[in-house]
Amino acid sequence: MIAGVGIDVVNVSRMERWRKTEGLTERFFHPLELSDAMSRGSTANLSLAARFAAKEAFGKAVGTGLSGIVLKDIMVKNRHNGKPEIYVFGTAKEALEKLGSVRVHVSLTHEKESALAMVVIEYEA
Q1: Has 83 been annotated as catalytic?
Q2: Is there a catalytic annotation at residue 55?
Q3: Host domain of residue 109
Q4: pTM value?
Q5: Marked catalytic residue, from 30, 55, 72, 110
Q6: Which of 3, 4, 95, 99 is a Cys-bridge partner for 61, taking CB atoms 3.0 to 4.6 Å apart?
């Protein structure tokens, strides 16, 4: 059964601005997530925007928004085949456990100026 659904869109220019401020991206992204995005070269900002949208969508799906959730506690990584997955730690894991959920699904997409993410959280009936 579906426990929650969230969707969010982020303008890529926000990531361009954030990257110009020392330490700001490190505040919002898990270190592994950040290094993966940076390895993408010219598409790093697209990758970061999509991942930030996924964090926002996750908050909506758990029903709390990001209140009480440390953004670095949500990590979006791609599997070897490119499929994105969300990994949660600390505060994000606690929010997910309150739902009693068992699976988190995420879909990312981006185009020149915008990135969008959708998160669906499932639990067993």
Answers
A1: no
A2: no
A3: 2-122
A4: 0.93
A5: 110
A6: 4
